[in-house]
Amino acid sequence: MSQQGYVATPPYSQAQLGMGGHPGGFGGPPSQPVYGHYGGPPQPFPIPPGGTQHGILGIHKGPVSAPSAMPQPPASSHYGSSVQQNGSYTQGFPPPPAASSSFGQVPQSPYQNIAPQATPSTHQLTNQISNMQISGYGQGPMPTPQSPSRSAPQQPFHSAPPHLMAQTPTAPGPQSPSMGSPLPLGGPPPMGGMMPAPMGGPAFHQLQGQGTPQGYPQPPAAGPYGGQLAGPQPGFPGSFPGGAAQMAGPPQKKLDPDSIPSTTQVIEDDQAKRGGQIYATNLRGQIPPLVTSNFTVQDQGNASPRFMRCTTYTFPCTSDLAKQCQVPLGTVIKPFATIPKNETPLYVVNHGETGPIRCNRCKAYMCPFMQFIDGGRRFQCAFCSCINEVPVFYFQHLDHMGRRMDLYERPELSLGSYEFIATLDYCKNNKPPNPPAYIFMIDVSYTNIKSGLVKLLCEELKTLLEKLPREEGVESSAVRVGFVTYNKILHFYNVKSALAQPQMMVVSDVAEMFVPLQDGFLVNYQESRAVIHNLLDQIPDMFADTNESETVFAPIIQAGVEAFKAAECSGKLFIFHSSIPTAEAPGKLKNRDDRKLFNTEKEKTLFQPLKGVYEQLCKDCVAQGCCVDLFLFPSQYLDLATMGDVPTHTGGSVYKYSNFQAEVDGTHFLNDLRKDVEKPIGFDAIMRVRTSTGFRATDFFGAIHMNNTTDVEMAAVDCDNALTVEFKHDDTLNEETGAFIQCALLYTTVGGQRRLRVHNLSLNCSSQLSELYKSCETDTLINFFAKSAYRAMLNQPLKNIREILVNQTAHMLACYRKNCASPSAASQLILPDAMKVFPVYMNSLMKTPAMVGSPEISTDERVLQRLCVMAMGVEETQVLLYPCLIPLQNMDVSSSVLPGAVRCSEERLSDNGMFLLENGRLLFLWLGQACPSELIQSLFNVPSFAHLPEELNSLPELDNPQSKKVHAIISAISERRTNRMKLLIVKQKDRPEILFRQHLVEDKGLHGGASYMDFLCYVHREVRQLLT
Ligand SMILES: [Zn+2]
176 CA distance to ligand 1 centroid (A)? Predict the structure, then answer.
């Protein structure tokens, strides 16, 4: 088992000490994965002097199993006069905004090329099944007994009731002694009905007969997707580690696909158990409901899971334990996450001229974890243990419990999340910031004119500009606006309110970009509305006859930065761009796409941005607080890896609409744009993650920029941006005191106020690995792995990354097996309850288009997915990697509840069915060939499936219960997603179906990658090897 991990040095951050990453660029890479994720050399860390480990916290002191619950804070009116309601979220915010366009633009190439590689490289995997024992999942008969006290110390071998995957290798029969013993539950006998019958073929997933759900007819082997179901399993293109030594094995067994852990079941169970309930954050190390469940958060001292989620809520006490289990310790932070209307928005605290109260030594902000002592005259820092004087104005007596009397009048003493008004010390040049500005930069070259984009956009802006984000309670937005059009040259517009007509100023020297006007370029929309509308009316006509097809790109970003500099503000550029910038100018690009590099050592170069001009632009943008949102309308390759570099280092988004046609794609684009413009957002942000002693943040993944190893800089951060942080030990953690994390984000509001947003979270610590495994959160873990793998793509061959992912999966499971599970036969695959669906997510991650080179998916499309995932939160990666598949054929039109989802496998489809599938970015409506005519009639107003038109672009809204129900389901799904999804309607056996089918993540990948079942077998084999 390799101890190797991987890491990619983020393009503009310093490599961290002891992390051996190698620089990006095109130089020859090391042939081996670099950097030991675990087991690397100890990293130097300055341990703050002084301070004791004991007695730091009265509130959270004591055994983990019975943390003293913080009493519920009183109603908000009890807050003192220094507190104001932060109204930013109280009302009027639009539905969650869009982040970017679909991954799955219809490929240009014919589908016939998709015949799978029938390499038998992992044929052997199928044999594993006979050595693997499966039971107890899904509809399985062995529910996990709930541990009475999640946090009570447990003995290593009797802690978590193992999930046995039971199946005797040869025949159904009495279970082996190890199987049933820890599961004294009622219900069907543990093995009942689970025993697969022997089957002849090498592909065990050719399921037939009992145990197979509604049969989805196997397509003929020679059909368009022939071989997808039959034949040996192709491995990943790079093949798994391990050889063909496992080819020989016992006879194949047929497995019930219901018997392997089911994501939909896990989601349903959590919703049933915790959905509709209030989740109060008063306990340390508390595991929140899943992201898929509906719950209401009540902040009682820890940040809401909407802001912070952890890979595990119990950290191991020592680095040795952490290395042993290889479970990454991390948190995913979404600092501006949207808060539902029924939850309390953040309070804003004003500590006056002195600014927020902080620890003198580590600079942590006042929070519920600080311990007041000495009659309230001093407080001990929960992060560094330093004892600080309480400023006179902040003094308060303590009650008999040692708590301040004003505890519940002060958000910073009783809540997990709140904001401080920042003083001038926190502002650039000690000056209060100006409100941010938005500049709309429109490529008016031939392509964008001809597609109808420019006209559509200019028309839309007239209404959209009315909805610029504003501070709560303020009449109009303080955000100023400016306009630039460009092709090879730039046109700036003076839209000062005093003008009768807008004025254009042309800059044709793009080498030394400057902004030709200051006064009148960035204006208040309300004041200049007439001039701006005049301009927006004129633009489409001005360029209607253009023949110019060349564009520049870097100079327009430079122009934006210069404009913000001149106006001394931060802000956002909205760039609407069509083509690879080939005009003579800084940042000129050329086509460097080469699909021959797919699945080779050099594949990574396709994902690497070009350095030089763009690297400098990133720095300039971040320094100025200039966020870049990029809307792309390409008809061919445009080097998205380089063009997307600035957006993804400035907290911006990238949207891509291939072969854009205003009539067809206009709605989707406008929906995205509206969401984006209206998004809650903060500018010129800098974030610091502080931790209590014993561990620290060592790595950061996201749409961020780092000039040093601790400060995360974001030109802007909006409600969808999420940052993933990894922690490592530098000392031993204390079970009694636990572990604290404080994330502090300094930023400028849309109204131009400088604020500090603080999120605090307390975790448990344990010397028992079983506690760690019990507290894991699969959805957060997979977010961590997705981001770390997607970043590693810049520096390492995908084959290495996939190997490392598999190895680490096996390692985590083997460690659990060895240290936490009851003794059992080696032939059983045992998964921790909290991670039982981790393998399906991991396998799905390795099959994503970014990770699997396929001639069908363009380089830009893969790059886009990589860029988008880097900024995703836990909800987004969850549904991306395990899409939601909803059967519609039997929907209850009278019910307001969404039909339950089914497993993402074609086993679940049926000829006479109709299904919705969504992954947060794409929404499919799949129609079976034998779909009932009545249903087709109700939804499409044609008599039957055969009458459906060739091209189905939209779902009409018809006046009948079925149509209304389907539209209601679609809008319910869309509401909960950050993106506006485009609906794609696919007919069974039609060519575009391939797009749909690649999201059936339990099946073998269309472009390589194992089925879920095969992957489990493979991992099981790896686990067994590790245990011998
Ligand atoms: Zn401190």
Answer: 55
